[in-house]
What we know:
By secondary structure, the protein is an alpha+beta fold. The protein has one domain. 58% of the residues lie in helices and 19% in strands. The chain contains 3 helices and 3 strands, in the order αααβββ. The protein has helices at 2-13, 18-63, 67-78, and strands at 82-88, 91-98, 109-116. Strands 1-2-3 form a 3-stranded antiparallel beta sheet, with helices on one face. Strand 1 (82-88) and strand 2 form a beta hairpin. Helix 2 (18-63) packs antiparallel against helix 3.
Amino acid sequence: MRSRWVDLARRLRSDRGSATAELVVALPAVALVLALCLGAVMVGAQQVRLTDAAGDAARALGRGDDAGYATSIARTTAGEVSLSAWDDGDFVCARVESGSGVALLPIALSAASCALSHGR
């Protein structure tokens, strides 16, 4: 009779199932870290697209194309963006802004680039 109680006490004191409980507690934290990493990668990729779009738009404006064409080039490269341009001496500069956010994050990103005006 004593051995039955000893076996029951051993089973109650064992760590069986503790790994499952620890996994259930840690899984939301791991998922949050992975989501933040994915969001950071998506923000970085959007910044690269904006930089490329600003360079493309500045080169188009430097060739003498109109602002509408430069905006369409920027939107082809980086999605829904707004373009502002200005002259800076021998250079024409373009700033591309994306205010819609990235990956459900309300982050406004922008990039600027300059090119020689009219091929000088």
